[in-house]
Amino acid sequence: MKVRIGIDVGGTFTDAALISNETYELIDTMKVPTTHSDERGVAAGIIQVLTRIMEKNHVDPADVTFIAHGTTQATNALLEGDVVRVGIITIGQGVEGAKSKSDTQMGDIPLTATKNLYSSNAYVASNDPNFAQIVAEKVTELAGLGCKAIVAAEAFSVDDPRNEQAAVAVSMKQGVSATATSEISKLYGLKVRTRTAVINASILPKMLDTADMTENSIKKAGITTPLMVMRCDGGVMTVEEVRKRPILTILSGPAAGVAGALMYEKLSDGIFLEVGGTSTDISCVKDGKVMVKYAEVGGHKTYLTSLDVRTVGIGGGSMMRLDGGRLTEVGPRSVHIAGLPYEVYSDSAEIVDPVLKTIRATEDDPDYAYVECRGGKRFALSLAGAANIAGYVAEGDYARGNIEAAKKAWQPLADRMGMTVEDTARLALKLSAEKNSKVVRALLEDYGMDPRTTVLVGGGGGASAVVPHLAETLGVKGRNAKNAPVISTIGVALAMIRDMVERTIPNPQEKDILAVRLEAERRAIESGANPETVEVSVEVDTSKNIVRAIAIGTTELRSKDLMQRKLTGQELQAIVAENLDVPAADVYSSAENGSMFAMQAKRTEKKFFGLVKKTVTPLRLIDSEGVIRLQRQNGHVRACTAANWKDALLSFVDNYTIYNDGGKTLPNTFVIYGKRMIDLCGLGDEAHMIALANVDLAHADPDEPLILICSDRTD
């Protein structure tokens, strides 16, 4: 049996998931303590858990078709200040060189309250006939100052990177790790690009050692498929890419959970909440794409695009905060930090004559509740306990505990509050939901999500302590992911290849946009994606003169289906009706191509206190497995074939183009070809649309049915 293996390296445990490559069903999981103190670092734990899960399930190394791991090593290195001093070699000449000197002075970048990332600078004239020799001398000079890694920085190197590349080659020849700013980002802005490269270089030596040890150990185990590593944007990349850009693994922990939600849960529009014992990581998925932003390190902007994860100090182990003996807040202190056992995961026979008391885990902490029982045994009151008492944790759920024990432990607090145990538990859930709901609402607003069709999906061991009640509070749909406690590890095993290219191009022409698209596609293929599976979306930000291309593909010859059958039209209609919250009879099919179905319904929306009525046609693009791939609140659909798609697209787009004093605004447009969505949103010119779509449709059979979709830019 062919299998996929995902390994997630956490701060405490290293988890592995074994998944069938044919059905994507979870076969087994395994965990070992993370080996921070081993001379081989976290690589030792990766090999331990890999060996154990393969031996237990009698997996032949030749049957491993995909193996990837996610790691917190880069994140922890920055959080703990475990980085090296970086030498910056600035390259330039004349007045421009003088400005570059200023732009590349990074100083000390704060990482923690007591630790910084330190850097030193040197300058080399780009027109010096002895350029390579001078660079070698500067590398030696910087190494003498304690620099363990080098950054080569030159203004406009994104247009001509040869000098940076030459400097990197000289440094590597002298045995010093090095990176070029143009390798990290293709955007103009030397200061931010250099800062991003410096952060990347500061973790290069540590990450190189781990990458080498892990890759060698995988090969020794007889596994021939290339090792992949989780990126911070939800994709994976090869170890070779990690050697160049380890910064891309920062924040990859939360990204793994979202990757699981995307692939395993087939989440297309929703909010994903990964709930641990101490906190909840909340992120947004829209149109099947994870939402990303530029990350900040030490309060400084970088050109690193990472998952837009917002963390709230609420988890299954969150304790009850007391003020004046009354429950006033939940968290952020957790059971684990206080060193107390959970009441809900204890034997009810141990909770005898409980007395309500308070504890401060640190000097700066407020009072948190616990109970002390006969014999001096102490138990924390936790959010998981409250969720169990209030009936939000189903039988068989990972977070399910001893409800009788929880009720006995909570009774003294309930008595103090003058409430029933159940009402006290519900108050705790209400207080926790207030914190989480602020973040969820902010994400919904930031990304234009419709609460009526948004679903909350929970992952992590504490999902049931947070998600069911939060969904009820917000009035939205909610569910826990299948195998929620190990969804991150599953996400690593199922993650897709993802790469992005950004370039600063004022007034981009057709050839510029195609060049960026092709570069993103090439990068994804170089990172291990099969060319037949790569899909590329292009965005043009005219306000910032940025052209952005995102390429996504799989390592398989085709993207596997979790469901093994196609649903009937009636079944698809029922799914869309439930999503739109309308009767199934009101849903109709606008167009279909055998693999994808555009379904709509009519809805009357009232505005201005009901004085104005507007009829809209919400659209759902659903595939044959019943997964909604695209949602639009007012969509327009047209069917055509590959023989006449250009004329059809131009006339269709023209129908919904808005003309005003500022010019024209094209609608958000998609071309559906088989199961592929060609994303033409954000483009400012019809010629750009035709050029991009033509890349995918140039060799399509003339009779191939296509679906065209348009909607307003605001939708």
Output the keywords.
715 residues; Nucleotidyltransferase, domain 5; Rossmann fold; globular
Question: What's a quick, concise take on this entry?
Answer:
With 715 residues, this protein is of the alpha+beta class. 33% of the residues lie in helices and 31% in strands. It has 4 domains: 84-202, Rossmann fold; 251-495, Nucleotidyltransferase, domain 5, CATH 3.30.420; 496-553; 569-711, no CATH class.
Give the rounded overall mean pLDDT: 89
The number of E-state strands comes to 40
For the CA atoms, what is the radius of gyration?
A: 27 Å
Biggest sheet record: 6 strands, mixed
How far apart, in Å, are the first and last alpha carbons?
45 Å
The proportion of residues in beta strands is 25-35%
Low-confidence stretches: 557-563
* CATH class call of the largest domain: Alpha Beta
Helical fraction equals: 25-40%
Q: What is the count of structural domains? A: 4
Structural class: alpha+beta
| Outline type | globular
Describe the structure.
The protein has 715 residues and is α+β, with helices and mostly antiparallel strands. It folds into four domains: 84-202, 3-Layer(aba) Sandwich (Rossmann fold), CATH 3.40.50.1860; 251-495, Nucleotidyltransferase, domain 5; 496-553; 569-711, no CATH class. It is built from 20 helices and 40 strands. Strand 36 (658-660) and strand 37 form a beta hairpin. It is globular and about 85 Å long. The two termini are 45 Å apart. Mean pLDDT is 89; it is low at 557-563.
